[in-house]
Amino acid sequence: MRVLVAGATGYLGGYVAREFKARGCFVRVLTRDRGRLGDLAGLVDEVFEGEITKPETLTGVCDGADYVFSSVGITRQKDGLSFWDVDYHGNRHLLDEAQRAGVRKFVYVSVMNGPKLRHMAIVDAHEQFVEDLAASGLDYAVVRPTGYFSDMRDFFEMAGHGRVYLFGDGMHSMNPIHGADLAKVCADAVAGDQTEVPAGGPDVLTYRDIARLALEARGMAIKIISVPEWVARLLPKIVKVFHKRSGQTLEFLTTMLVSDTIAPTHGTHTLRAHFQALADQAQAKP
Questions:
Q1: Where would I find the H helices in the chain?
Q2: What does the pLDDT look like over 94-134, one tens digit per residue?
Q3: Sheet containing 67-70: which strands, arranged edge to edge?
Q4: What are the structural domains of the chain?
Q5: Would you say 276 and 266 are in contact if contact means Cβ atoms under 8 Å apart?
């Protein structure tokens, strides 16, 4: 089985490439810079250098591939591109190549509860691509994670200063998922028959639980400060005045913090162990 992995330099994509290799697949990765792959470059079978926002650089990227996986999307890059440039148009360029090459299936990572959150630009770009994918004629699956363990690092960083700030009472819940566990879900989606695949980690936690785990891993006293929810609604609007994309990202993050985001549980990695591993790494640094 030949698989193209787009987004391999991101948090999830690297795990997905490794998971497909572990299953005996031929893995080609798409990257704009081979140097950013690190040791992954030596583990995969083929590296295709191209810029997903520049379709002329993608010619042939899907040739010979049975399946395409994409977790391409803007996270915290500072390259001046918009969510529509990358999350929609970039993936649309990849879909065009996949259609031309006649791939068997396209697996895409979007957002949990995405159709209900399209009033936000970051989600709307994802969901417009999902619409295009569904209309493409290709077999497809859309994986919808609740949130990555990498997103939880903000709690860990706050905890390092002795306190964690939460919007509202912090009693909304989620079950974030580790990249390795989510990679298995994504690889399984290739052979599965579901077009929508919601996925969360093994532990359902309130945001106060997450804050407490971060503080405990840091060896700090439990100090959690609640910020009124109206601040969560106002702050993104203020930030948008100065930096549109940052404000849009903040709008998404604050919305998640005052919502429940729970999906079927997968995997074995716990957030407690993840935070402890981060703490051990921090203590090991000179």
A1: 11-22, 83, 91-101, 121-134, 153-159, 179-191, 207-218, 229-242, 244-257, 271-284
A2: 999 999 999 999 999 999 998 898 888 888 999 999 999 99
A3: 46-49, 26-31, 2-6, 67-70, 105-109, 139-145, 196-199
A4: 2-147+179-199 (3.40.50.720)
A5: no
